[in-house]
């Protein structure tokens, strides 16, 4: 007897976790699954024409493949710069003023920039006229004169575009929007998986969090936590992605401390990038020995930050990744009239490097789409392999840089282990493949290795924090939707333990399919009074997730403040 289609699909599809809770709909009870929501914080406008409103008055905006350009247009990324003029008949001292607003991802391409800048557009029109004239011209001398003029204008346009596209402000706009586009285009967004973005320059975050005495009074806390958990029917953020780079300055460390408090309260890990200045090197290509850097007196506050329990909710990625090939033969930017060739040369800074936090975010959305679970995000065979980044054949004479690389610097296995121990999540280049991978999964937290080293280290990794936080979201929503139903903390505790026990399987030898149905090896919830907050309860949650996670033998502990 031939097997049915559903039988074959079940065999092909990977095991998938489905966590639900009961919702009353009239006389019926429905099973509801919470969406996985990625919140992206970035400087989306870069040079806004008008001052932005206070952070608490801004809104997260949902973005997907279908509305990407509309959201980009509404964000109005704007470039206003002055660059040396390379155009014919211009004085060497003359500067070209550029003011451009980009409305679509396609408008970041060279020919679009030509059309948006009147001086470049005029030169292009002249070039087009000369090409037409060349086809009508007779006589070798006349053709040579026209050809020389074409060459002069073509060369000048190439030089001018190179100056504009290699300007730091343009590269910032392009890197942010191409990084975001990479995440959106490679994520299967739907009602189960959503991406939302917030226009939040790093300086605005610092100002917002410094203005208030406590981080839980800030605009960011209001947007991430209060407007979601504090509102009936509001959605939670599962993870927050910051298109920033954090270094060793006191402002950066203070900002990380305050952001991680919000991330821990919302149980939404914050993923952003490490700045090279954190490693006390001038650029990404210098040889590095990390063993002593983080023991300096300058980084005392950094070490204290790592020792805090909340730092489990912070992940710093590195290095930067290549977001597009240089324009030219590998990445065409030409038509019959004009051919732009980007002069990246042997200068690493001329390439478009972007934030690796976007790449990790895509690995996380991929894991959720496949499994309904976000554990499979690291390791070449464990979900961490990155195959869709552009690959360029580099020919740097002054740096030890492999050909066919997708990252700004290469990280050896030895360095990756050292960086992982220091709390960083690094992308490793896969030699001779043009691929890369997240190999480790450590958060910035420094595990307490005096107690139980394997468990302490595993429970401070991003896969464990993400999966445990998923249950924390459900616990908060379960109680929020039933405020006023329970008479005592004992009844709350009984209700929560009954719910979570339906996801527990004690059989360590069970199949992956069975573990997907019951993704926890053990779970226990203890409800207590919250100190200093009469009438408010907290749930201490002990979880031992085991689907796609086999290292932990004791429980992760989370504290969830329950809605009152």
TrEMBL record:
Pfam families: T6SS_VipA (PF05591), VipB (PF05943), VipB_2 (PF18945). Residues 148-444 form the TssC1 N-terminal domain. Transmembrane segments: none annotated. Residues 452-562 form the TssC1 C-terminal domain. InterPro entries: T6SS_TssB1 (IPR008312), T6SS_TssC-like (IPR010269), TssC1_C (IPR044032), TssC1_N (IPR044031). NCBIfam families: VI_chp_2, VI_chp_5. This is Type VI secretion system contractile sheath large subunit. It comes from SAR86 cluster bacterium.
């Amino acid at each position: 007897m031939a097997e049915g289609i559903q039988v074959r699909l079940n065999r092909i599809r990977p095991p998938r976790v489905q966590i639900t809770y009961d919702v009353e709909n009239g006389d019926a009870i429905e099973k509801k699954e919470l969406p996985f929501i990625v919140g992206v914080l970035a400087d989306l406008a870069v040079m806004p024409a008008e001052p932005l409103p206070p952070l608490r008055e801004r809104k997260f905006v949902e973005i997907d493949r279908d509305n990407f350009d509309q959201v980009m247009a509404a964000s109005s990324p704007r470039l206003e710069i002055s660059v040396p003029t390379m155009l014919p008949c211009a004085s060497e001292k003359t500067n070209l003023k550029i003011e451009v607003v980009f409305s679509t991802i396609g408008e970041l391409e060279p020919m679009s920039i030509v059309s948006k800048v009147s001086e470049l557009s005029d030169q292009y029109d002249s070039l087009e006229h000369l090409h037409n004239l060349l086809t009508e011209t007779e006589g070798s001398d006349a053709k040579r004169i026209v050809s020389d003029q074409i060459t002069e204008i073509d060369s000048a346009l190439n030089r001018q575009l190179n100056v504009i596209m290699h300007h730091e402000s343009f590269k910032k706009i392009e890197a942010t929007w191409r990084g975001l586009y990479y995440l959106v285009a490679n994520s299967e967004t739907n009602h189960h998986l959503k991406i939302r973005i917030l226009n939040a320059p790093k300086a605005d975050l610092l100002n917002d969090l410094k203005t208030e005495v406590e981080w839980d009074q800030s605009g960011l806390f209001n947007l991430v936590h209060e407007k979601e958990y504090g509102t009936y029917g509001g959605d939670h953020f599962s993870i927050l992605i910051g298109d920033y780079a954090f270094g060793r300055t006191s402002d950066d460390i203070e900002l990380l401390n305050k952001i991680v408090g919000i991330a821990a309260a919302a149980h939404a890990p914050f993923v952003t990038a490490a700045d090279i200045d954190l490693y006390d090197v001038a650029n990404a290509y210098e040889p590095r020995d990390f063993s002593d850097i983080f023991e300096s007196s300058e980084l005392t506050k950094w070490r204290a930050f790592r020792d805090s329990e909340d730092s489990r909710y912070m992940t710093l990625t590195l290095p930067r990744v290549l977001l597009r090939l240089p324009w030219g033969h590998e990445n065409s930017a030409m038509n019959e009239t004009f051919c732009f060739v980007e002069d990246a040369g042997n200068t690493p800074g001329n390439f478009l490097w972007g934030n690796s936090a976007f790449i990790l975010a895509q690995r996380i959305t991929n894991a959720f789409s496949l499994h309904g679970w976000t554990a499979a995000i690291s390791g070449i065979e464990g979900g961490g392999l990155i195959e869709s980044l552009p690959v360029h054949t580099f020919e740097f004479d002054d740096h030890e840089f492999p050909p066919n690389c997708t990252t700004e610097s290469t990280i050896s296995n030895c360095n990756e282990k050292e960086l992982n121990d220091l709390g960083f999540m690094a992308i490793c280049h896969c030699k001779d493949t043009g691929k890369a991978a997240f190999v480790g999964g450590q958060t910035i937290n420094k595990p307490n290795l005096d107690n139980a080293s394997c468990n302490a280290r595993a429970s401070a990794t991003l896969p464990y924090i993400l999966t445990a936080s998923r249950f924390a979201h459900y616990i908060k929503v379960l109680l929020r939707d039933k405020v006023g139903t329970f008479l005592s903390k004992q009844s709350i505790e009984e209700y929560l333990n009954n719910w979570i026990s339906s996801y527990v399987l004690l059989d360590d030898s069970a199949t992956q399919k069975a573990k997907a149905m019951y993704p926890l090896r053990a779970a226990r919830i203890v409800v207590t009074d919250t100190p200093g907050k009469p009438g408010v309860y907290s749930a201490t949650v002990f979880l031992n997730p085991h689907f796609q996670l086999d290292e932990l033998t004791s429980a992760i502990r989370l504290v969830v403040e329950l809605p009152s």
